[in-house]
Amino acid sequence: MTREYAAAGVDLEGAEAQKHRIGEAVAGSRTSLSIGKVGAFGGMVRVPAGMRSPALVLSTDGVGTKVLVALQAGRYDTVGEDLVNHSVNDILVHGAVPIAFMDYIAGAGLELDQIAGIVDGIARGCRAHGMALAGGETAQMPGLYRTGTFDLAGTIVGVVEEDEALHGDAICPGDALLGYASTGLHTNGYTLARRIVFERMGLHLDDRLGDTGERVADALLAVHRSYSAAIRPVLRQVHGLAHITGGGIPGNLLRVLPAGCEAVVDPASWPLPPLFATLQQAGQISTDEMRDVFNLGIGMIAVLPPDAVAQAQTAADSNGVATWVIGEIRRGEAAVRFGRR
User: In sequence order, what are the beta bridge partners of 153?
Assistant: First the structure.
């Protein structure tokens, strides 16, 4: 039976080897909140002790077609770390501390080194945030996926005191918009970026990418930055946070604006990284579409009182993250507008 199953495309013996290798990575990320044993049917973690009214914050996401670049380059650990950092940022927006993560890798004919590389990156991201990799699932599905291809997703669990959770309702006219530098595309816009780089520009992974000074592989696989260390020291002063992912600044900043507040973003207030200038010029993409698809060098926006900006910038600088005051909140209909301050 096992041999017939392998002939159909699922290698049970190989799967056992993968489980052992993955188990080592999972065990290395366990924290004081971890409960139960590695390899159980469900992952378990405690809620941190001493919380008055803990609220769980959950988020599920993936890394999109960035996995195709990872496949081309044969580099798998960076997309694993991307997945964790993206998820950490999503719950940081609500003020939550990450306590557990679970991954889902689906593909066909994946080799041990591929899966191990992905999980190593996930585990590295978890350890960096003091978070347990509580478990996950690897599914080999020939017929649904082409041999050697995969998709990647993850679910994060965080916790925050209910009365300290950020919802954006504290945002008010006069607040400043503080933009935090991205490390490139992060995990969004890759379908368009790949079309421009590989089809229109005709580049290969080892070629230099325009004025970026980087090889294509390095520029496109730069790890999605986590903003946890840069923002957490000043979280109590923040009125709202927007993680700039799919939809760009207009689509994501709008999600945190309360009624009666308009965000005015000055596009001249931060330098456009060469990567985005190259993509726009080579792809002949309009400025409006660039803003809707890419982060344009801003991976997170904090909305906070003007007198809190200096401290927030100091905290970010201490963690190696550049920041710029990129706009302000004004009275008006909830919307995001680009213009001079």
Answer: 62, 104
